[in-house]
Each structure stands twice: as structure tokens, then as C-alpha cells.
């Protein structure tokens, strides 16, 4: 899981909650406690994938254009994250004359891939509306 996922979920939840469903990057950055440039990077990605739109100008900002029930955390995860379980580093050495050392990297990769599939299925069951409901219960 990376910070872009958290920022995207926070932004969409916040945009759904504020008046007019619109806020600029400075307002979002203040609420999220993150740099506005990081927010803009995530918002570009959300816009490119049709989750938000923008209004230009002095009173402009980002607009959440979907029903929060229709946007799942799995959707956002697919956009922002490769695999939360995978690792760039692998233990062992495929050239060693040891079954464990030469094979554990591939075995762990398979485990990570399967675990990530289950995690994605879990996130697919949760929507932005579920996040909102948990916040305001």
C-alpha cells in the first residue's frame, strides 16, 4: 500500500463531504496534511481515470463526479498501487545448489500474488460511501 492510495481515498471522501463537492489542492493538502504538489499528482491520476473533474479559475477546484457507493477502494487500489505485498528484493540465489535458496524467491512471489488477489477482492467490497459511513457513524 502506498501513500497515493491513502491520499486518493482521503481526497474523494473529503470532496464528497464538502459543499458543492469541490475543493482546491491547497484546501485538500491542509485537510490531508500533505504537500499540495503530492495532492495535485494524485488528482491528475484520478482525473485521467474519470473519477474527478476540474473547474478552472479563481473559484475552481476538483469535483468528485460519482456516487460514492459506485467507487470502490479496489478501484482506487488498482489505480494507485502495484502490489502491496510484493517485494523488489528476494532472498536466496537461484544459482545456489540448495532447494531452499534457489526456490524460495519464486515461492514467495506466488504467495504474494495470491495474497494480493485476496486483498483486492476485500477492497472491492468497500466503497467511498463505506468510508464515509465509518467516519460518521
Automatic annotation (TrEMBL):
<protein>
    <submittedName>
        <fullName>Putative transcriptional regulator</fullName>
    </submittedName>
</protein>
<dbReference type="InterPro" id="IPR036390">
    <property type="entry name" value="WH_DNA-bd_sf"/>
</dbReference>
<dbReference type="InterPro" id="IPR036388">
    <property type="entry name" value="WH-like_DNA-bd_sf"/>
</dbReference>
<dbReference type="GO" id="GO:0003700">
    <property type="term" value="F:DNA-binding transcription factor activity"/>
</dbReference>
<dbReference type="InterPro" id="IPR000944">
    <property type="entry name" value="Tscrpt_reg_Rrf2"/>
</dbReference>
<dbReference type="InterPro" id="IPR030489">
    <property type="entry name" value="TR_Rrf2-type_CS"/>
</dbReference>
<dbReference type="GO" id="GO:0005829">
    <property type="term" value="C:cytosol"/>
</dbReference>
<dbReference type="Pfam" id="PF02082">
    <property type="entry name" value="Rrf2"/>
</dbReference>
Amino acid at each position: 500500500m502506498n501513500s497515493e492510495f491513502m491520499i486518493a481515498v482521503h481526497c474523494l471522501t473529503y470532496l464528497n463531504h464538502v459543499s458543492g463537492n469541490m475543493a482546491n489542492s491547497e484546501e485538500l493538502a491542509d485537510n490531508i496534511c500533505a504537500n499540495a504538489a503530492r495532492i495535485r499528482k494524485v488528482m491528475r491520476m484520478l482525473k485521467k481515470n474519470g473519477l474527478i473533474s476540474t473547474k478552472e479559475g479563481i473559484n475552481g477546484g476538483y469535483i468528485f463526479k460519482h456516487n460514492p457507493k459506485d467507487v470502490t477502494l479496489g478501484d482506487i487500489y488498482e489505480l494507485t498501487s502495484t502490489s502491496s505485498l510484493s517485494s523488489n528484493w528476494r532472498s536466496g540465489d537461484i544459482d545456489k545448489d540448495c532447494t531452499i535458496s534457489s526456490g524460495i524467491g519464486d515461492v514467495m512471489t506466488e504467495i504474494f500474488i495470491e495474497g494480493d488477489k485476496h486483498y483486492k477482492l476485500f477492497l472491492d467490497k468497500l466503497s467511498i460511501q463505506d468510508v464515509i459511513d465509518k467516519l460518521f457513524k
